[in-house]
Design brief:
It contains 9 helices and 7 strands; from the N terminus they run H-H-H-H-E-H-E-H-E-E-H-E-H-E-H-E. The chain is an alpha/beta fold. It has a single domain, classed as Rossmann fold, CATH 3.40.50.150. A 7-stranded mixed sheet has the order 3-2-1-4-5-7-6, sandwiched between helices. The longest helix has 19 residues. It is globular, with a radius of gyration of 17 Å. It comes from Seriola lalandi dorsalis. One of its GO terms (molecular function) is polyprenyldihydroxybenzoate methyltransferase activity.
Length: about 240
């Protein structure tokens, strides 16, 4: 008899605080061990980022969905591809730093190819100028994927292709630094003529803030927010 172990928000808080000080390699081992219950646990944390970002992309995408090649960066267990598939997208390549997460993504049957890479440490394993949509949800945050990876996302997009990103904006000094650094980089890339800004939107209350401990009364009010941005790679 398989035992369904259901975790609550406090369990998630303890779990995620246990990996707060991990380096990139350690964090990926943590994700390997978390992969099997990740989607269940995401629901406990009310993790709505994939839904919000895909709605945002969908509202701004006018091309041929069936023929569009999608690079799903930091794809995790495949939540983004599942939602995009429902909207008619069919061609997915996934990249993640966790082998366990890629194993879960493989079970969806949606990806033509899945590639293992620790972003920021290893180069993004994607052909240059090959993708109609490059998307990254949830991983652009301090201690996860460095700002420098944004240029690699742009590089993987086709001329005229879209890069869709969501950035986590945690209330912390390091979070503020990351946000400022990322905004500078996005602006710089625009000035260099690499891409043009299409649209940005706030991502409100997309997940409970389980990364910080807080007293019981505050806990219910504590949600993370962020920003979603869409850029179009310059046609060469």
């Amino acid at each position: 008899v398989s035992e369904e172990v259901s975790r609550n928000v406090d369990d998630m808080r303890i779990l995620l605080q246990s990996c707060k000080s991990f380096g990139p390699q350690q964090r990926m081992k943590f994700y390997d061990s978390w992969a099997e219950t990740y989607e269940q646990d995401s629901e406990v944390m009310n993790y709505r980022a994939p839904h919000l970002v895909i709605d945002f992309l969908n509202a701004n995408f006018s091309g041929d969905r069936q023929g569009a090649r999608v690079l799903d960066v930091a794809c995790g267990s495949g939540l983004v591809a599942k939602l995009m598939f429902e909207l008619g997208f069919r061609l997915f390549v996934g990249v993640d730093g966790s082998r366990g997460m890629l194993d879960q993504a493989a079970k969806t049957g949606l990806y033509q190819n899945l590639r293992l890479a620790l972003l920021g440490t290893q180069a993004l394993p994607a052909q240059t100028g090959a993708f109609d949509v490059v998307i990254i949800v949830g991983a652009l945050r301090d201690g996860f994927v460095p700002v420098s990876v944004v240029r690699e996302l742009c590089c993987a997009a086709k001329p005229g292709g879209l890069v869709c990103m969501s950035r986590v904006d945690p209330r912390s000094e390091s979070g503020d630094r990351y946000k400022a650094c990322m905004e500078r980089e996005l602006q710089l890339m625009e000035e260099e003529g690499l891409w043009t800004h299409v649209v940005s939107a706030d991502m409100h209350r997309y997940m409970m803030d389980v990364y910080n401990s807080s007293n019981q009364e505050e806990q219910n009010q504590q949600y993370l927010s962020g920003t979603m941005s869409l850029y179009r790679k310059s046609p060469r």
